[in-house]
Design goal:
The structure holds two protein chains of two kinds. Chain A is an all-alpha fold. Chain A contains 14 helices and two strands, in the order αααααββααααααααα. The chains are: A mainly alpha, B alpha/beta.
């Protein structure tokens, strides 16, 4: 007996696990940087976040949803790592576990599991933790290279926090400049922040890998970063003493992590390139609005979650370019 | 060669696996029994003219076109009509067919069987169209649309270009490739005949760049044929699709729901052009064709010249026999071919290849949840959203499917090929197209 099925009879190279493990590989540089600067604490948070995410997915699928487990597809692993990336390395272990429960249980499985969630699970967890435990979520350990030995962890504010605080206290940018890290420090990860967001270089390396492997396209990251640069650039050009420059905004906080790894999440971003550009522009604008005029020094997470909510609308409005709309010759009716 | 032409929207690049590309066309022995189905073309099935016990010769008309979109059928063998009854066709459906017990190989006297190549085209356009119609020609790339219909543009429309489809973008298949290499001259004369019938002065032969020998060979020959240009194309599936080929070659887009003639183009397959040459210059109806027999486990991947009606099993035997490990037999290529129920089904006018797949290749991967990666949308050559169309089809929302242009789908399978979650998108799209088509037809009737 032969197998009979509809065409096509061959299948391409892509699979869900391949994409997910591709994202994991892309996160390796940022993982290494976070371990380098935050040491054993970073390992603790990473292992806990990953283990808890996978565990919760398994438990919920087995006992609540009563369906076959999909933990091997790698999506829970990605969520776990991203959750770790989004919290400070000194976050108490039980809070990390709560974060994983929120990410997997609330943001992913309650919508029906992989592919059905509206909001990025790791970001829902980040915002949940930020609102629930504002103190622990905003005491950022100062990064110190692993080679400098183990010492008591010193915590401090993020560059965005310094600027927000300083400007509202009436200081000017030139007065604040000595207090914030240099661009080089921002790029290599020597600034306060969540575990995975500190090194722009490591994140960009991961982004290039994902572009090469065709896991993401350039549209969302470029739109997010470009809009942020443009918007902050206009403000800075208008008054460089009351607004930080675009490079500062691009390199600090969670913008790189957000633009490259969070906003590009396939499940929660639009389906066409046009829609993806609009989505990215929206993330950029909301980020700057929150950073400059909002109550929080950082706004990337809120911006992405807000844009996640309008993705279904964007998908309705942005259709692919249909074949046949550009005949190239006059068609008689 | 970075500037090769191609279509712009979507497309994929499946592994080419042209295992039989170097195998010259080999004539297969005539079968002992020929099974000639009466429905071999797109459109109405043909009406039989013979009855049980009739003696027939090779090339004798045994069934006439069943309608405007229909075609004649000629006996591919000589012998005695054994029965006119249903046989199982390639898909396992019962279809009427003429079964002929073969005796000898006696041809109709008016068929020129010599090897001489006749270059001079004496027939008028009307005579050409009539000959093509009489000879029972259909599109031999697999669509089997009656050729004469394509040569008769609807009133008010005229053709500007003839495009010969030598793309063969389906993996594995090589029959068109071999025809271009071995019957290139006749194929080009066939193209000129088609140009004369269509009253056009410009003809193109589109060939993908993975067949450099065919491009070179035909480019040399084309110097002697006025108005014919060989166009090398970048390798991309589904470039052999009529609309994609027109876009690639002359940069025109056939609008939704319209025919190629509306942008001034008529597309014919390489094999059809050869058949046109034979019909017009040699008076030979469509009774045989070149069929690729291939597959990773096939011991001798081949290109056979076979009579219509030959059981597929005989082709497989000639290619080294059915491998033990065979899990799937496909009529056509792996992207758009049909999987066959048994090897007893006969070769028909539209059979371009027989592909044997190993057991391990035969099964689909288990379907997983859609991760909304949008790859299906980005590979769709028609600019559709397969993830959305499959979902609305599943839910039975056919009005929405129509709005989202499900009828534009050419069923190339690029979406399903690409889907990381291995969702059988095209299954759902076919269902949706079927139901939406029914709705549209019943609405038009009112």
């Amino acid at each position: 007996m032969f197998t009979v099925s509809g065409s096509p009879h061959v299948h391409g190279e892509y699979s869900t696990p391949k994409i997910m493990y591709g994202v994991v590989i892309a996160m390796v540089p940022a993982i290494l940087v976070s371990i380098w600067f935050f040491g054993i604490d970073a390992v603790r948070v990473l292992v806990l976040a990953v283990a808890a995410s996978i565990f919760f997915e398994w438990v919920i699928q087995k006992y609540l949803m009563k369906e076959t487990s999909t933990i091997a597809d790698g999506s829970a692993l990605v969520t776990g790592i991203l959750l770790a990336f989004n919290v400070p390395s000194n976050l108490p272990s039980w809070m990390v576990i709560i974060g994983a429960l929120v990410a997997i249980g609330m943001a992913k499985m309650s919508f029906g599991g992989l592919g059905k969630n509206v909001f990025n699970p790791a970001l829902v967890a980040r915002v949940f933790l930020l609102i629930s435990f504002p103190v622990q979520m905003t005491s950022w350990p100062k990064p110190r290279a692993i080679t400098e030995g183990l010492a008591d962890v010193i915590t401090g504010p993020t560059p965005l926090g310094i600027v927000k605080e300083g400007l509202s206290a009436g200081k000017t940018m030139s007065e604040l400049t000595p207090e914030i890290p240099t661009y080089l420090q921002d790029m290599t990860g020597q600034m306060g922040g969540s575990m995975g967001e500190v090194s722009a270089i490591a994140l960009i390396l991961g982004g290039i890998y994902m572009l090469w492997k065709k896991i993401i396209t350039w549209h969302i990251p470029v739109a997010v970063l470009g809009t942020t640069a443009l918007f902050t650039g206009i403000l800075w050009g208008f008054n460089p003493e009351s607004y930080a420059d675009p490079a500062f905004h691009l390199l600090t906080g969670g913008l790189m992590l957000g633009a490259i790894f969070m906003a590009t999440d396939m499940v929660t971003s639009p389906m066409t390139h046009g829609g993806q550009l609009l989505f990215g522009v929206g993330v950029g604008i909301l980020t700057v609005l929150i950073r400059v005029w909002g109550a929080y020094p950082e706004g990337v997470s809120f911006a992405i979650l807000l844009m996640n909510a309008v993705v279904p609308l964007i998908n309705r409005g942005f259709k692919p370019k249909r074949f046949g709309t550009n005949p190239g010759i006059e068609i008689k009716a | 060669m970075g500037l090769l032409k191609t279509f712009k929207l979507g497309g994929v690049h499946p592994a080419e696996n042209k295992l039989s590309a170097q195998a010259p066309i080999e004539a297969l022995p005539i079968p002992k029994k020929a099974f000639v189905p009466l429905g071999q073309n797109l459109g109405a099935p043909s009406k039989p003219l013979v009855k049980r016990g009739d003696e027939v010769k090779v090339g004798q008309l045994i069934a006439t076109a069943g309608g405007f979109i229909g075609s004649n059928i000629h006996s591919p063998v000589s012998g005695k009509v054994f029965k006119i009854d249903v046989v199982l066709d390639s898909s396992g459906f019962r279809r009427p067919a003429v079964t002929i017990n073969v005796e000898g190989d006696e041809w109709m006297e008016n068929i020129d069987r010599s090897d001489e190549i006749i270059k001079e085209i004496t027939a008028t356009p009307e005579e050409i169209i009539n000959k093509v119609k009489d000879a029972g020609l259909v599109g031999m790339g697999g669509a089997t649309f009656p050729t004469q219909v394509k040569l008769t543009p609807p009133p008010g429309m005229t053709a500007e270009y003839l495009i010969i489809n030598g793309v063969e973008c389906e993996p594995y298949l090589t029959s068109d490739h071999r025809v271009m290499l071995e019957r290139g001259e006749e194929m080009l004369i066939g193209a000129q005949i088609l140009m004369k019938a269509l009253k056009v002065t410009k003809g193109y032969v589109g060939i993908e760049n993975n067949k450099p020998d065919a491009i070179e060979h035909l480019s040399k020959l084309a110097n002697d044929y006025q108005g014919i240009e060989i166009v090398p194309l970048k390798v991309k599936y589904p470039q052999g699709g009529e609309k994609q080929l027109i876009k690639a070659v002359v940069n025109r887009e056939v609008p939704s729901g319209k025919l190629p003639i509306e942008v001034g183009c008529v597309v014919q397959n390489v094999g059809t052009a050869l058949a046109v040459y034979e019909a017009v210059q040699k008076n030979k109806p469509l009774i045989e064709r070149v069929v690729t027999v291939t597959g990773k486990a096939v011991s001798k991947p081949s290109n056979f010249l076979v009579r219509i009606g030959t059981p597929i099993g005989e082709l497989i035997e000639a290619a080294g026999g059915l491998p033990d490990d065979t899990g799937k037999v496909i009529g056509g290529g792996p992207m758009m071919g049909k999987s066959l129920l048994s090897t007893d089904a006969p070769v028909v006018k539209g059979t371009s290849g027989i592909l044997l797949m190993k057991k391990a290749e035969a099964h689909r991967k288990p379907e997983q949840a859609c991760i909304r990666c949008s790859k299906c949308t980005h590979v769709c050559p028609m600019g559709l959203e397969p993830y959305l169309l499959s979902r609305v089809s599943k839910l039975g929302k056919y009005d929405m499917a129509e709005q989202e242009r499900i009828m534009d789908c050419i069923e190339c399978g690029s979406c399903q090929y690409t889907c990381p979650a291995a969702i059988p998108l095209l299954d759902y799209l076919r269902l949706g197209k079927n139901k939406t088509g029914q709705l549209i037809r019943s609405r038009n009737k009112k």
